[in-house]
Structure formats: C-alpha cells, structure tokens
Specification:
Helix 1 runs antiparallel to helix 2 and helix 3 (about 35-55) runs antiparallel to helix 4 (about 60-79). The longest helix is centred in the middle third of the chain and has 21 residues, at about 35-55. About 85% of the residues lie in helices and about 0% in strands. The protein is mainly alpha-helical and about 80 residues long. It has one domain (about 5-79): Tetratricopeptide repeat domain (Serine Threonine Protein Phosphatase 5, Tetratricopeptide repeat, Alpha Horseshoe), CATH 1.25.40. The radius of gyration is 12 Å and the shape is globular.
C-alpha cells in the first residue's frame, strides 16, 4: 500500500477532524489494505459525521454521498 497516501490522509484528519470525507477516504484505504478493523472504525466515524452534517445541511448532496460511501464500505467488510 502507498504509505504516502496514508500519511496525507492522517494529516487531513488531524487538520479537519470533523470532515467525513477524510474518514471515508482513509476507510477505503484500509479496505484496500485488508485491514477490516481500521476500515470499520473509519467508515463508522465517517457515517456519524456525515449523518450529523446531513441534518443541518441545506441541500445535503455531498453529505448523502458520504453516507452512501461509508455504508457501502461497511457492507463490503461484512461480506
């Protein structure tokens, strides 16, 4: 796996810990790496953040897309 990608994802999360997109992307990284535990944690965090933002969003398109990607990642793990 690309450790530079992981480094940038970790930095993005440190800089914006409430941005669901960063957790979705890192969850997808862990999914590709075969680390189901880390992927599950990141997808669950992304889901929580995106659902919270969806409630307060005027349009909600981006937030719903992030909810969908996080749920998809979790479904892949449970197969």
């Amino acid at each position: 796996m690309n450790e530079t990608r992981l480094l940038y994802l970790n930095r993005a999360i440190e800089g914006s810990p409430n941005a669901a997109v960063n957790f979705v992307l890192r969850g997808e990284y862990w999914l590709e790496a075969g680390d189901w535990e880390q992927a599950t944690q990141d997808f669950e965090q992304a889901l929580e953040l995106a659902q919270s933002a969806l409630v307060t969003s005027e349009w909600g398109y981006l937030e719903q897309a992030l909810v969908d990607r996080a749920e998809h990642g979790l479904r892949l793990i449970t197969f």
